[in-house]
Amino acid sequence: MSKKIPQPTTPPRERAFLVGVELYGKKQFLALEDSLAELALLADTAGVDVVGELTQKLDRPHTLTYIGPGKVEELKALAEETLADVVIFDDELSPRHQRELEKALGNIRVLDRTALILDIFAQHAHTSEGMLQVELAQYEYNLPRLTRAWTHLERQAGGGGGRAGSAGGVGLRGPGETQLEVDRRQIRTRITHIKRELEKVEAHRTRYRAQRKRSRIPTVALVGYTNAGKSTLLNRVAKSEVYVADQLFATLDPTTRRVLLPGDDLALITDTVGFIQKLPTSLVAAFHATLEEIAEADLLLHVVDISHPNALNQFEAVQETLAEIDADHIPMVTALNKADLLHHPENAREILKNFPKAISISAIEGTGIKDLLHLIREELYESYSPIHVRLPYQQGALISLFHELGQVERVEHERGGMVMHGRIPGRLLAQFASWHAKPVEARQSPGSFEEQETIDDSDDLEEA
What we know:
Elements: E1 14-23, H1 32-45, E2 48-58, H2 69-81, E3 86-89, H3 95-105, E4 109-112, H4 113-124, H5 128-142, H6 146-149, H7 179-214, E5 219-224, H8 230-238, E6 255-260, E7 266-271, H9 281-286, H10 288-295, E8 299-305, H11 311-324, E9 332-337, H12 348-352, E10 358-360, H13 369-382, E11 384-392, H14 396-405, E12 407-414, E13 417-425, H15 449-452
């Protein structure tokens, strides 16, 4: 007689009610309804069902509850009516806003966009580095919110808090310390430890990048809005099997693959974490080591989901994030992906005009990939930019690089270094960024290298 084995039951998904606020005069990449639609996708990725939404337009957030008191009452009624377990705001709430809202809403939890994104990152972090970065971001986000989380533990761990002989029992006399203070101290200790571990990761990455630069193989960083198709594109051009999923933030850890370009030239292409509008600053800080993969690249390949109705807004949101991490000066080409999903593919030609150095492609079908690889090769190996740098003799590697891969037009030897004029591949510009010389007419005098150092953009020679 066969015995039926009970199957594990999947726990029911939580129910969420969304709240969006449009602040007059504040720059928004997406319209309020589009931003809430994106928040709903984030909620779904986190494993939450959306049961309703509420919006309000304000001049500025309400001091106590972010939305107005009337809207709070309306939100409470709607959340109870829809049996919502959690209310999620589309903006980052201050600890005070969160505390007052939870007080007003009773038993319903309150989260904001940042907490939701952090939860998704925690689910998708698989490497030790990724988990450390997410843990750091979560601790730094939660630390000022401990008052809310630990209100019920505002008790004295040390007891009476009076004279040594006061009542309180053996081991419980003395000034004491609140449980809240203990937890804060423990979290700060953990934050310090994680930062030390991430410094080791960053040092390792720096050595690895230096090794790649010595190999003289140029690096390309894939950047773009989350779910634009970066991993699919990397799999296509590198014939690899990087994890791909049709969900937000499927990729957290950078993956580098060697790619053969037309003409048998090589490039190293790195897949990176996707961006999103209102990207939490705590995440940008925590993922500093990973994001340096972008800032140190020779070329950026910006992947845009051209089938998305807000493609241009998403492009601008990514550009703003690149500026935040000082990567907006790096040469860039644009891959307008998912062209196969356009109802009228011929419209892609018109759309191309809105993006710099753009190629329309379909990473999943392979169309346009050859043209894209030709454009990448052209940018890496054939595009030269004029340059005028003042290099100290200690920078022998850069001097050799200029002679080997650039077109030297004139060299002026000065005390302590040399001024070099010519053209170099655009991909190398970032390596010479610290040594750009002032135009000749801007110099104070034609003196020695050291005398002119005070008006140079370079670092201190002794440090070099």
